[in-house]
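Writing this down once: the sequence line spells out the residues, with the fold written below as integer tokens. I am pasting one below:
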Amino acid sequence: MGRLVFLFASSLLLMVAATTVSAAILEHSFYVKNLTVTRLCNRQVITAVNDSFPGPSLRVREGDKLIIHVFNMSPYKITIHWHGVSQLMSAWSDGPEMITQCAIRPGNNYTYNYRITKQEGTLFWHAHSSFLRATVHGAIIIHPRARHSYPFPKPYREVPILLGEWWNANVVDVENQALALGIGPNISNAYTINGWPGDLYPCSQNQMYKHRVEQGKTYLLRIINAAVNSHLFYKIANHNMTVVAVDARYTNPYVTDIVVISPGQTVDVLLTADQPVGSYYMTANNYASGSGTAVGVPFNPTTTRGVIIYQGARSSTTPLMPVVPAFNDTPTAHKFFTELTSLVGGPHWVPVPLNVDHKMFVTIGMGLDVCPPNVSCQDRPPVGAALSGNMNNVSFVLPTMLSLLQAFFFNVGGVYTTDFPANPPVQFNFTNPSINADLPLLFAPKRTSITKVKFNSTVEMVLQNTALIGAENHPMHLHGFDFHVLAQGFGNFNPATDTLKYNLFNPQMRNTVSVPVAGWAVIRFVANNPGTWFMHCHFDGHNSVGLSTAFIVENGPTPETTLPSPPPDLPEC
């Protein structure tokens, strides 16, 4: 009997030790300041973290706790958002300006403190103030806990691939100019791979990302779209890739020769170096869904490229170039976005909640606003109107005196209203371009209108794109939650027929869904995380003019499900 007690006690101690060993506390310091770099023939001052562009990668294990001290030594106010991290019971560390915190002023600092819970794969961090995320961003690489493994063969090496966008201008000025003129921002001058534009751009022959591989080895590419306003096609000449995760959620293996990735999304792929020894270009170019619509949306038509170099390849060998898809290749984009499925029974898999408590039908798109004071709107017809964005005919306005989370926690009135409509206040033929002739449809009131839901309720949203101003694909990102993407399609959502298309068995999970051009997507999530959570278009040019909304999730019934008090160093407004 004594031996049994000893064995049981020893086993219990081992279990506790294993749990302790598998989770760590990781502490980092981010110094945000000016950095001078040379790109596209110009020396330029950018805002960067720790003197690097892209910024440092955070390498963690599931279950680890992160403590990140952000010191703002730049001339701009800033926040950092940990994109895709669920922030379970740590809403004060989510980072969107005026949603969960006020900005960190120049010369000040703030500490973000959160745990990575039931997520594995690739996410990323970025600035959530102005257009600063164009240069203030980096990877978050989440490995399984110690003694746990991937649900696929272990790769030989892991390689972050950050796709970005470059302006030959101060990106804060780019946004300010757009807002001052009431128009969309100037298009970027280049795309980048890990910060490098590649040899198709001026003065960039030696500014190209290169990755060396060994023939026969398999590599895990962690692809991140950190671009500000662009969906991207990604290809590698003569190579297939196998998708194994998106947005830090495992998928069934999906073999493809192209990855389509929207701003805010991540895709993990296995790449096997199975071709003859040589060099092979990788490319990224714009998927410009709105360019073929009635109101053309300007875009950058250029291509960035890096190169995969096999060990033993001759330096004189000209790399092979992939066939780059047409910029408006919607069939290819839709195929990729809709054919991915979740790995049922895999690590951290979550079944689809079947009972829905709160149903919403939400139109998303652009519109117009009566030209505000100090804004010149001559460039946009009708004269006297500025570009605006809206969801269900509400153009979202950020608070100015207090963040939403502070207002919720301290029960401060007058900061927001809870009357965001669950359905469009006006019914119309959403995807018919002729609706642009109906001027009242183009104008949406501006207000801080949000949706309040009870803790642990299940929310379903039909996200319906419109053709107002111009139809295009919108990447919609939800903070604080991953959601199931039940279905996607073109045209106006029809509940009588389209609900029959719902995948309730193994739909992909995401934190950012690419809603098809002139189409719709249906998402579902459980609101099990108290706090205020931003939902917005991850085109910064659209988010900054109101294509967004927010949720308040009420506290749960226990102390463990109640929003904690704010940290003492929370920035003042």
